[in-house]
Design goal:
The chain is mainly alpha-helical. The protein is built from three helices and no strands. The longest helix is centred in the first third of the chain and has 24 residues.
Length: 100
C-alpha cells in the first residue's frame, strides 16, 4: 500500500491550515469579543500569541527572532485596552494565515 503524502495536495494543506491556525485564532478572537477570558488567562494568551507570531515569522523566512513589541510591557489586567491589543494582534495573524 502506498503511503499517503499530503505534499502538493491543496485540499489537505488548506484543511491543515484551517484546523491548526485559522480556527484556533478565530476562536480566541471570538472568546475575547465575548469577554470569556479573565486576568488569569493573560499568560496563556501571551504564549498563544508568541507561538503564532513565531510560526508566521518562520513562514516569512525569519527565524529566532521574537518581536520586541511582545516584550514591551507585561499585562496584568484584561481591561478594554489590553483586550483591544490582543484583538488587533490576533486579527492580524488571522488575516495573514487566511491569505495562504
Amino acid at each position: 500500500m502506498k503511503n499517503l503524502e499530503t505534499k502538493n495536495n491543496p485540499a489537505i494543506d488548506q484543511f491543515i491550515i484551517e484546523t491548526t491556525l485559522i480556527d484556533p485564532i478565530a476562536k480566541i478572537i471570538n472568546q475575547l469579543e465575548n469577554g470569556e477570558f479573565r486576568d488569569c488567562d493573560i499568560k496563556w494568551l501571551d504564549k498563544k500569541l508568541e507561538d503564532f507570531i513565531k510560526f508566521a515569522a518562520e513562514t516569512l523566512g525569519i527565524k529566532g527572532i521574537m518581536p520586541s513589541s511582545l516584550n514591551r510591557e507585561s499585562f496584568t489586567t484584561l481591561n478594554d485596552y489590553v483586550k483591544g491589543q490582543y484583538l488587533t494582534r490576533f486579527t492580524t495573524l488571522l488575516n495573514y494565515f487566511k491569505s495562504f
